[in-house]
């Protein structure tokens, strides 16, 4: 579900939940021709972002809020602006 709202500066934001469980340590494609005989070690969980986060996207940028607040999708614009104010700008640690 995508929720759209406008911040105090008049910028339109979209917000939604992200629930990834795995993250590639390398962005490169697999170089092996034959299948692996053991599990792929490149895949790991995302520390600090389990079980998910709230994503905010606008022409002004992207942000994410760790731990999805209960009932966030029923908040009015004022409540969504408060969550946006708490959300961090991505540090490059995670890909969008």
What would you say this structure looks like, in words?
The chain has one domain. It is 10% helix and 28% strand. The protein contains one helix and six strands. The protein has a four-stranded antiparallel β-sheet with strand order 1-2-5-6, covered by helices on one side. Strands 3-4 form a two-stranded antiparallel ribbon. Strand 5 (53-58) and strand 6 form a beta hairpin. The model has no long low-confidence stretch (mean pLDDT 80).
Element layout with pairings:
Layout: E1 3-6, E2 12-18, E3 23-24, E4 43-44, E5 53-58, E6 61-66, H1 77-86
Antiparallel strand pairs: 1-2, 2-5, 3-4, 5-6
Return residue spans where pLDDT drops below 50 for at least 5 consecutive residues: none
Shape: elongated
Termini, distance in Å?
A: 17 Å
Q: What's the number of extended β-strand segments?
A: 6
Give a brief outline of the structure.
The protein is mainly β. The chain is built from one helix and six strands; from the N terminus they run ββββββα. The strands form two sheets. Strands 1-2-5-6 form a four-stranded antiparallel sheet, with helices on one face.
